[in-house]
Automatic annotation (TrEMBL), chain A:
EC class (word): translocase
EC number(s) from the headed UniProt entry: 7.1.1.2
UniProt protein name: NADH-ubiquinone oxidoreductase chain 2
One BP annotation, GO: mitochondrial electron transport, NADH to ubiquinone
Taxon lineage: Eukaryota, Metazoa, Chordata, Craniata, Vertebrata
Alphabetically ordered keywords of this record: Electron transport, Membrane, Mitochondrion, Mitochondrion inner membrane, NAD, Respiratory chain, Translocase, Transmembrane, Transmembrane helix, Transport, Ubiquinone
Parts of the chain that traverse the membrane: 60-80, 92-115, 151-170, 177-195, 201-221, 233-253, 273-293, 325-347
Family the UniProt entry places it in: Belongs to the complex I subunit 2 family.
Reactions that this protein is recorded to catalyse: a ubiquinone + NADH + 5 H(+)(in) = a ubiquinol + NAD(+) + 4 H(+)(out)
NADH:quinone oxidoreductase/Mrp antiporter transmembrane domain segment(s): 23-286
One term under GO cellular component: mitochondrial inner membrane
The protein's role, per its UniProt record: Core subunit of the mitochondrial membrane respiratory chain NADH dehydrogenase (Complex I) which catalyzes electron transfer from NADH through the respiratory chain, using ubiquinone as an electron acceptor. Essential for the catalytic activity and assembly of complex I.
Compartments it resides in: Mitochondrion inner membrane
NADH dehydrogenase subunit 2 C-terminal domain location: 289-342
TrEMBL record, chain B:
GO biological process: ATP synthesis coupled electron transport; electron transport coupled proton transport
Protein name, UniProt field: NADH-ubiquinone oxidoreductase chain 4
Originating organism: Oreochromis niloticus
Gene, per the UniProt record: ND4
Keyword Transport annotated: yes
Keywords per UniProt: Electron transport, Membrane, Mitochondrion, NAD, Respiratory chain, Translocase, Transmembrane, Transmembrane helix, Transport, Ubiquinone
Amino acid sequence: MNPYILAILLFGLGLGTTITFASSHWLLAWMGLEMNTLAIIPLMAQHHHPRAVEATTKYFLTQAAAAATLLFASITNAWLTGQWEIQQITHPLPTTMITLALALKIGLAPLHAWLPEVLQGLDLTTGLILSTWQKLAPFALILQIQPSNSTTLIILGLASTLIGGWGGLNQTQLRKILAYSSIAHLGWMILILQFSPSITLLTLLTYLIMTSSTFLVFKLNKATIINTLATSWAKAPALTALTPLILLSLGGLPPLTGFMPKWLILQELTKQGLAPTATLAALSALLSLYFYLRLSYTMTLTISPNSLLGTTPWRLPSTQLTYPLAISTAMTLCLLPLTPAISALLIP
Amino acid sequence: MLKILLPTIMLVPTIWAVPAKYLWSTTLSYSLIISLISLTWLKSSAESGWSFLSPYMATDPLSTPLLALTCWLLPLMILASQNHTAPEPISRQRTYITLLTSLQIFLIMAFSATEVIMFYIMFEATLIPTLVIITRWGNQTERLNAGTYFLFYTLAGSLPLLVALLLLQNNTGTLSLLTLQYTPSMQLSSFADKLWWAGCLLAFLVKMPLYGAHLWLPKAHVEAPIAGSMVLAAVLLKLGGYGMMRMMIMLEPLTKELSYPFIIFALWGVIMTGSICLRQTDLKSLIAYSSVSHMGLVAAGILIQTSWGFTGALILMIAHGLTSSALFCLANTNYERTHSRTMILARGLQMVLPLMTAWWFIASLANLALPPLPNLMGELMIITSLFHWSWWTIALTGGGTLITAGYSLYMFLMTQRGPLPAHIISLDPTHSREHLLMALHLLPLILLISKPELIWGWTA
């Protein structure tokens, strides 16, 4: 892509999120979200492949619908309460509509159906941006409005963890697996929202780090299906040895970083008296763990002297910058002992 | 405490930095030195029971024998793995020993943890190296299924445990073992409390394993390489027993009624798995089911909550750890020579490898709990305390002892006695490494005859 156009689009992407972060007026927040959507559309469609264009169209339609709902809800709130402050939204009708609109924006179940198909149509870099950067602006709004209708939020949360787990079980395409993993993690974030928004923020940040590691590993191996992962031992042996740990961290196994948000969420849920919800959410994480385990089996635990599972591709030297991957992998694996420090920083 | 933990952690850079031809001898000698230093823990002196106290780690007479067993096992695992990893490239060998060492680090931290959540995290952390050992270095395609069963059975039990521990923390304000024994007992009466009781114990019962939830064990033990089988049988099962013994204090008074079905399951499991052993054709599978059988007795001994029960459970855990690991090493000597686990393919070995027969004999006798070995002491104390609880259990435990003797002798006679099959024409003679391995397993067991106070636990 023309570097000037790319620069403008990335600038627009950054600006949109920043506007939403900085806004206290609903209209400005909506503008930031729309800028984000519009800036990423050409990035998604840049390869002019029909599948990419299909993904772009689906993304545009869902995000536009969500933004329109958001606009409508904020106007309703202005009618009902006479003001446009983001943090002063209290009337239950606009609050619920905004919660659902933002749920559609990020891909929470039961509003999740677009995410696997859209992610599948994108290349891994744009997919990475969709899974990480595009979640920041809606979450900024979610964290500020602090919805309090507990039933809706718990249903959104548990449905997302269960659907994210079950949906990913039958997939062989890596991007769809990552989409379902995203849905499951978003479920965990929403589950704790009404009790402790700071734990939601912590979960979001750890999820961003872990999923960046995974996307970057797949990019380095140029892998889009599970079979391609089987030859990664020839391209990057040390990374092949580390990737099961990254995947198990995504799955939330101690002593890796991914355990930290789950631990803090379960602790807060039990303090609030929701032990059965906590148990159900914890057990639903086992579903996602199964497909992460399957990926680790294919990639690392069945390498030679066992027979190859995939056809060997051309092994050209990779030109990818490995510095971000190194940092995100180190953080994905080693941050659990810092839990007291991180929770002191984030949780008041 | 740190004088054991830090050298074990520093063993990891040692593994990667040492020149290739000194890898195995260096790691073996360092881990032996660490295990000898760990024997200093056995002298516990504090009145309160907790020795070598630091804010997060301590030892008491319950955890000390298990810690010594864990530290003792690392050199044995390294000794046992030297042969089968020899054809692999050197960095794979280093990775293998690193996995064994990291498992050791997590186990030391688990057994010496004073905070129950730290124990939980280390309990779960042991899953990852074990999973990699089983699925990467196992030899048959079934190992992937074995790894999945192992991981998911354990996690399905331990996630409710995490919720239960967090509930306990809300209730008592702390999860430090040092103070939990002094908190007033909670009023536990509602149905939710009974679910909480089950949640606390389920993870450990799956790990031990209890008979109904034992399906992961034969798979994992059979498919694992020798070091994996050794550590699984000797130490990882004991994590379940240790966890149960720690949690029992807090679970009163519900245990009096709620433990009934689990005691019955455990005792029935002794009979059932013993009977399955009599029909096994796979040698490692036989030893795996024998592990389930012995651990069923341990589970019953812990659930009965008497001092003889606890002491018997601890003694049996240590003795079974050494015996079972010894049997797996013996089975591995067969496997390395014939690359098959089928018992009838390598029969009558007394003719070919008579020195090994001596070790098979001692290990089989230990398995069937011959006096004066500590195996008998443990079993007898558990059987006695169960008999005191209910006379009917003697039918199950007595029958269990009989069947154990049956399959242990069956295993010995099948592999050692009888005619030599015609196709065994060239078997490697026994290596001195294998003799050393067996001696290091069985000598501590024999020495414990003279001072069982070391492994008696709190009643010492």
